[in-house]
Amino acid sequence: MQSNRSWLGSSFRAGVLALGVAAGYAGFVIAADEATTPSSGVPNQEQKAWHVHERERPQPPVVTPGTFSTPEQPGKPPSDATVLFDGTDLSKWVDKTGKGEAPWKVENGYFEVKKGSGIISTKESFGDCQLHVEWMAPNPPVGKDQDRGNSGIFLMSKFEVQVLDNYKADTYADGMAGAVYGQYPPQVNATRPPGEWQVYDIVFHAPRFKEDGSIDKPARETVFLNGVLVQDDVSLIGPTQHMKLTKWSKMPAKAPIYLQDHGHPVRYRNIWIRPIMSEPPVAPTMDGVAH
Question: What architecture is the 1-39+76-277 domain classified under in CATH?
Fold first, then answer.
């Protein structure tokens, strides 16, 4: 759950399924830039109209796929991913001040929320991305409703995908695991029991703003939880907030990802992120020419 202080189209979705979503086990993250024109870091080669099957159309970059995780062993990320946590240290993260070392406990290939220490955030900033995160709620479970294995993953520091133990445990629909907090309940409850690794694969498109600061294109999110689609390219209505109807205000094109300290010893492992194209390839507009 987000505190009162508060806090990835179709073709791409297939790629997510192929790498970590279909198996339900697989592994992805982003500090604020001053620019407000989004840049994914992936070259968009679709700069003209194309014939069907045109051979001059640029080839996509080659990426070596990763491997699936198992309950015992995290998988490997794709070759173009930035690894945010590889099981050894939190060198890619900082504390709540944005300056000190991240204080959460690291052991046995995972790290664990340290109660009362506050959020941790990535040193690097991200915008449009594919993010893979694996997490585990405490076992045996303690508490109920929002006070049960609670944490959160905040893209661009403002858009929370909820982390919560909702295995045979109820809470309000837009605040459960798989929810875009305070906005969209998940399509289904696909959580595993506490003490088992849960897998998020998230496709995120950052918001775009007009020169006057008003919203042009809202942020969009697709989320898979344990290989099950729970958010299908939803358009956000603003930053996620607790108990408030949100609205848009201009923000940087990129910002860090942060993880929430909600006082529960939630564990994380195998976190990686990769940039994606800001817009999908353009469809051809002319018949093919014989080769």
Answer: Sandwich (2.60)
